[in-house]
Amino acid sequence: MIFSNYLTDQGSVLVLDASVVINLLVTGQSDAILKSLNVPLLVTDSVVREIEQGAAAGRPEFGLLTKAINDQILRLETIDGPALATFFGLVSGDASNSLGDGEAATLALADGFGFIAAIDEKKATRIAAERFPALKLVTTIDILAHERVQAALGAGKLADATFDALRFARMQVRDCQFDWVSSLIGSEKVDACPSLRRHVRRKSLK
After folding, report:
1. What's the sign of the alpha-carbon dihedral 22, 27, 30, 36?
2. Which of 12, 110, 124, 130 would be 115's cystine partner, CB 3.0–4.6 Å?
3. What pLDDT score was predicted for residue 40?
4. Cβ-defined contacts of 169-175 (< 8 Å, 24+)
5. How confident is the model at residue 206, as a pLDDT?
């Protein structure tokens, strides 16, 4: 597997979508993961509001996110100007070609300033490729597999963190990423992750 090398680009700035933030927060290692990247990390106010909605259902991510912002691990940004027009374009239209507020704000901010967008959802990735062909995208797995993250956590903690993201947040994994994930967490834990079942079925058919 070849992981994205965008995170090693000099001057990289990373804008995190809600799903990526949640994936990392549930690992119990989010501070270590985010700090080890050693790049500016941004979240939009739309993403914060999206995660805040989960607090009403008793989920802990909003409190963890608020702490990460207060500790200046993540920087909160509000989109305006041309990026705001891009945002409205992304949330408008039919369901198959429009996005939720968090995804739209993430892509609009990243595209508007030449930042990198960290986003997992397939539809958002497709729309980004169609509308912003120059936009650089990474996934949660790209972050977890980054050499600085691996060095900071070590193999054992990284495996546990990845497993927790799969169990508690149903982290999405691309076909090309499955072998790395499987090797990291082990086959027994793969079987315990509902979000990986289609990959297991696909492998069994080969």
Report:
1. negative
2. 110
3. 95
4. 169/19, 169/22, 169/23, 169/26, 170/194, 170/195, 171/19, 171/23, 171/120, 171/140, 171/141, 171/195, 172/19, 172/120, 172/121, 172/122, 172/139, 172/140, 173/141, 173/199, 174/139, 174/141, 175/199, 175/202
5. 65
Confidence of residue 2 (pLDDT cuts 50, 70, 90): very low
Give the pair of three-digit tokens for residue 201. Answer: 């079925």
Rounded to 5°, angle at Cα 46 from 65 and 88: 160
Contact (Cβ atoms closer than 8 angstroms) between residue 136 and residue 116: yes
44 contact partners, CB below 8 Å, separation of at least 6: 15, 76, 77, 78, 79, 102, 105, 106, 109
Radius of gyration of the chain (CA): 17
Is the whole-model pTM more than 0.90?
A: yes
Share of the chain above pLDDT 90, in %: 82
Q: How far apart are CA 18 and CA 118, in angstroms?
A: 9
Task: Give me 125's structure tokens.
Answer: 């990735």
Contact criterion met (CB below 8 Å) for 102 and 44 = yes
Distance of CA 169 to the CA centre of its chain: 11
Evaluate if residue 167 carries a pLDDT over 90. Answer: yes
